[in-house]
Structures are given as C-alpha cells and as structure tokens.
Automatic annotation (TrEMBL):
It is found in: Cell membrane. It comes from the Bacteria. This is Alpha-glucoside transport system permease protein. Residues 1-29 have a biased composition (Low complexity). Keywords: Cell membrane, Membrane, Transmembrane, Transmembrane helix, Transport. It comes from Lipingzhangella halophila.
Length: 461
C-alpha cells in the first residue's frame, strides 16, 4: 500500500530483502551452516572404537595373511606352499565337505524351527513362558551345551537320555529278552544253534524228563516271583517235561549239573519242541523253572531253548558313531539357536499388518493357506536375515564339534574351524598351515557378510 505522497510503504516488497540481510548480519562470521559437531570432534569419539577394531580385528587378519606365507616354525618364507598343502590334504576336504553339509542343512532347519515356535507363541496363552524356555539355551555357553549333549548322546541307556527314551519305547513295544547273558556250562548237554538259542544234545522221546542247567545270570536280575528250582514231574504220554534252572549256589558248594536246594529256577523261559526243522510245540517255564511240552507225536524231538530268551537288549542308536555324529551335533546346534531364530521371526510377525491376514481369512483361505501364502511371503525379508546370519555362525562352528565328538570320530565330524585349531594348537604345531586355513575361512565368510551389510543398507535407504 502507498502513502499519500505515492512513496512505497516500508512494509512492502522491500521488507523481505531487509529481513534476509539482517539474518545474514546476525549469522556468526565464518560459519558453515553445518548441523552437528565438527568432524574432528566426531573422530575423537570414534578413536577408541577404531583403535579397538584395529588391534583386535584388522591386525589379526593382516598378520594371519602374512603368517600363512611362512613355514610351521615361521623361519622360512614358503610363499603359497601352505595353501597348496591345505587343498591337497584329505582332512581339509573332509572338513570342507562337513561345512557344506552344515551350511545346507543347519540354517534352514533352525529357521524353520524358529518360524514354527514363533507362530505357536501367538496362539498359546503361556507364550512368555514358552519363549523363555526356548530362548534359555542362548544363555548357555557352547562349551556347556556340548557337555550336556555329550551326555544326552551316551550309548548306555542308563546314562544317555536319547537312548533311554528310545529303549523305553522299544521295550514297551517289544519287551527285551529275560536272560541275555545266560550260557550253558562247558560240560552241559547243550549246543548253540545258528540263530542264537540252545538245543539239548540228542533227541528226546515223549515221556522223558530233562534237566537243563544254565549259568551267567545274576541273582538280582531274576524276574520277580522266582522260586527255587524243582525237578520236573514225570511226563505223561505225548509229553516232554523238564526243568531249566540256574546251576549256581551262592557261597560255593553244590553239585554241577544237579538241582541243589538253594538254586533258583529260570521262569518265563521259552522252550520249543522241534521236529524235522519245524517247531511243533512251545511251553514257558513256571516260577520254579519246570515246563511241559504237550501234544507231541510219538516220535523223537529236539528240545530247544528259543533264541528270544538270550538276545541282547536293544541299546539304542549309536549317536556318537561316524555315521550319525554330524546330525547329532546339528541337533545340539538346533537346541541352542532355535530361540534366537524364534525371537527375530516373532518380531517380524508382530509387524505384519493384521488386515492382510484377516482379508485372506474372509476370502475363505484356511489357516495353512494363510500361513503359506500370506505370512511366509511377508516374513521373507526377516527369514532371509536369519538364514544368512546363521550361515555366518555355521561357518565358524567349533565348540560343539570339539566337545561332543569323541576322539575316535572327530576326523569324521571335522569342520574347518576345528581343523584350523587342530593344525595350529591341537598337536600339529603348524601355525603356517593354521593361518592359511584361517584366511580360507575368512574368504568363505566375507561374501555372506557383504550380502548382509548391503541388505541392511538397502533397508535403511
């Protein structure tokens, strides 16, 4: 607006220019207009971390590369000879093969277990307690976890939890033999059969009474209700009777091959009558060891103690053998890392829009279809992060293999990290070769790390 003389008003278009000039005059001289602390101050705060990384990360890497070019004693420069020996060593190839198996199996299995646990925790009322139980192994060191699973995988069912569970189920379905350690005396009239049982020497006629002594059975392992042995009564027509007993008297004494007063019978022993290679009659001994084979033809028969009486009890799976040692260690790895995968995936599940899930259910999708076609695709970024992270850790697996695998099968369970330790410090004392293995392991880990870093940068861009 102009005044009465036609001069422009001081509040007109010229006012902003005056305001800008005033702001420029108010700015401190020499200022850059940059927000935040100056670069020099930021470097001062970063210096301790940079020194730490340089001392404990950069220097060991560079020194390992340098040391890998020298011999075992570090006195002779051998150039790439350690790498040549490394790639021609059978032990390295076994370790590399096992690492490939680990990478292909362990991260996928752990991620699937974490996904299942994460989904379950959304559907149960005691989700917090469940998460605590599953995540708790992460608080246990790998060394302690290895000791725990070394005991779990013990062959003896009385010590190893895994075989105790398996043998319990097996004994429930198919009860074990009553007398696995029983044997006849050397002079006893018994011959071992090809199937593992024992036959009475010669053939028995109907009406005959037999005495069958055995040894090798501990008194405290006899079945409940066992009574002192009694002589079999006289056999009737078309019958063969007898007694199977433990021919051993506590404290010594007694007559071998004869039933003494303190000697127990062997109850529940299966006795068979065999004619022309076929079992024609079967009987089980009573509490005093007596038996009767009835309804026999008027012909000689072979009396046999069935092999099922003497078969060794099922001892479970040889978890720590050369065949199953790697899968067994993977089981321990799953126990430790499933909680880690569950927590990350559960965080991803909580970020999924519930509208997408409800829309799929409204459209008629089943829960399995919702999980497979909606939940998993939306979780794919999180699942990929978990898999790649586990792959990095799998390449460095060491503690569990060292502790769980017995010395006799460590060569079968060997991995690159363990091979590096064994060559350098576990008796090989060849730190040149060990450094070469360390550099090789670093080369394998770096691509996964680069992939992970690039992914984080894309997500934060």
């Amino acid at each position: 607006m102009a005044d009465t003389d036609g001069a422009p008003s001081p509040t007109g278009p010229a006012a902003p220019e005056e305001g800008a000039a005033g702001a420029a005059e108010a700015a401190p001289s020499g200022g850059t207009g940059r927000l935040g602390p100056p670069p020099g101050l930021a470097l001062v705060f970063l210096l301790p971390a940079l020194l730490f990384l340089g001392a404990f990360l950069v220097y060991p890497i560079l020194f390992s590369m340098y040391r890998s070019l020298w011999d075992a004693a570090g006195t002779e420069f051998v150039w790439l000879d350690n790498y040549r020996r490394m790639f021609t060593s059978p032990a390295t190839f076994v370790a590399l093969r096992n690492n490939v198996i680990w990478i292909a199996v362990a991260p996928v299995v752990v991620t699937m277990a974490g996904l299942i646990f994460a989904v379950l925790t959304e559907r149960i009322r005691w989700a917090t307690a469940f998460k605590i139980v599953v995540f708790m192994p992460m608080a246990v060191s790998f060394l302690a976890s290895g000791v725990i699973f070394r005991l779990v995988y013990e062959q003896d069912p009385e010590r190893g939890l895994a075989n105790a569970m398996i043998t319990t189920v097996q004994d429930t379905i198919s009860p074990a033999a009553a007398y696995p350690g029983a044997d006849p005396r050397p002079e006893a009239p018994l011959e071992e059969t090809s199937g593992g049982g024992y036959e009475v020497t010669g053939e028995a006629e109907p009406g005959e009474t037999l005495q069958i002594p055995l040894v090798g059975v501990r008194s405290d392992e006899l079945p409940e209700g066992t009574e002192n042995a009694a002589e079999g009564g006289s056999a009737g027509q078309n019958q063969i009777s007898g007694t199977v007993w433990l021919d051993f008297t506590r404290g010594g004494g007694g007559e071998e091959g004869a039933i003494d007063p303190e000697e127990p019978g062997l109850p529940a022993m299966e006795v068979q009558a065999v004619r022309d290679g076929e079992v024609v009659a079967t009987a089980h001994t009573e509490a005093d060891g007596t038996f009767t084979l009835a309804d026999l033809a008027d012909e000689p028969h072979v009396v046999r103690l069935a092999a099922d009486n003497f078969t060794e009890p099922y001892q479970g799976v040889t978890w720590l053998g050369p065949t199953l040692i790697t899968p067994a260690i993977m089981g321990a790895y799953l126990w430790v890392w499933a909680g880690f995968a569950m927590v990350l995936i559960a965080a991803g599940l909580s970020a999924i829009p519930r509208e997408s899930l409800e829309a799929a259910r409204v459209d008629g999708a089943t829960e399995w279809q919702v999980f497979r076609r909606v939940t998993v695709p939306l979780l794919s970024p999180v699942l990929l992060v978990v898999v790649v992270t586990l792959m990095i850790y799998v390449l460095k697996i060491f503690d569990l293999v060292l502790v769980i695998a017995p010395g006799s099968v460590q060569a079968d369970a060997n991995v690159l990290a363990l091979q590096m330790w064994r060559v350098s410090f576990g008796g090989g004392n060849d730190q040149g070769m060990g450094s070469a293995l360390a550099v090789f392991l670093l080369v394998l880990v770096v691509p996964a790390m680069i992939f992970q870093i690039r992914r984080f940068r894309r997500e934060n861009a």
